[in-house]
Amino acid sequence: MEIFTVVLVVLVIVFANFLHDKGKRNMAPDDENINTQKDSIMTKETENSGQENAQNTQDKQERNFHTKDFLIETLQKMNIKYEMSPDDDSRLWFEWQGGNFGIDVANDCPFIVIWFLQWNEWPLYDIDTLSRVKRIMNDVNINSGITLVYSVNESASTFNIHSKKHALFLPQIPEPEAYLRTLLGEFFAVCRYTEVELEKLKNQEEAIAQ
Fold first, then answer.
1. Which of 88, 90, 118, 121 could bridge 158 with an S-S bond, Cβ 3.0-4.6 Å?
2. Stated pTM of the model
3. Distance between CA atoms of 143 and 74, rounded to whole angstroms?
């Protein structure tokens, strides 16, 4: 009986030690899983850091981009001779297809303002023509990307019309020379539209008067 009791006690002690060791093993960290988690976290942090660096580089490039320099380079590739305004270094003048153009441009702004100057004029006191011109100007300003404005030349007694357009000008735009030609071509399209509409309005008024 005593031997049985001793054996039972020994078995209980051995079983208790087995359970204790097993619990410690279950509670101990899995080195392989921890390393995997570490690798995953580090990879994710590296990717995020790379994205942030790429974004910072892009932002820096955009901030350092010189719109004026890029415009001048484009004009030179188009064989367009330009002159800087003596009164404003952010404005340049040039001729293109018989028209007088000006562009307002600054190195720290991605937008340019193109002007097509005094492309038509009418006698200041020709009330009927001026009325028609103003109607067409309103129509163009509402429905197109080009804005028409007018000025009065008192000494010559003329009513002069000009047009302007705001446009984005960045090196990311494909074929910048073709892009600039398209922008300039829009001004001539508005000129032709104005002339056609003037004739239409004149004929309509004459038909009503008969």
1. 121
2. 0.69
3. 29
